[in-house]
Automatic annotation (TrEMBL):
Domain (Cupin type-2): residue spans on this chain: 57-122
The protein, known as: Cupin type-2 domain-containing protein
Presence of the UniProt keyword Metal-binding in the record: yes
Pfam families: Cupin_2
Top-level lineage group: Bacteria
PANTHER family registered for this protein in UniProt: CUPIN TYPE-2 DOMAIN-CONTAINING PROTEIN, OXALATE-BINDING PROTEIN
Keywords tagged on the record: Metal-binding
Amino acid sequence: MGRQPAGLSRLVHNAHDIGFSDLSKVGLRGQQDQGQVCNLISRELSGSEDLNVSLGRILPGQHHLCHHHPDASEFYVVISGTPIVHLDGTDYRARPGDGIYIPRGTSHGITNDTEENVELVVGMSKPADWEFVSDE
């Protein structure tokens, strides 16, 4: 297959080439958000005007802080692992293949209380600059 044609360089991105970075938000009591993200489609990378798509990874024992976005909806598609997904005060044991819609303003987070990595596709209804409001 080789390298992609030059015209696709803004449209096609690979997580193995980009790599993951640690989440950087801080909670209401100063606790660090946990997990990793690899942005694949965004305003900056792709010129997207309407969405953002990333791969997310929550390692064993990590907790992605409960938070909400007043200006964007979000979704998760669980690829691997069985995390606890916190949705507006309800805890749900997710499994691979689950698609989870998170409406704008809905508090949500993820806890990986298992011994395996959790891998997710994460999408936002804005290409960038959404607000992250910690709920814990």
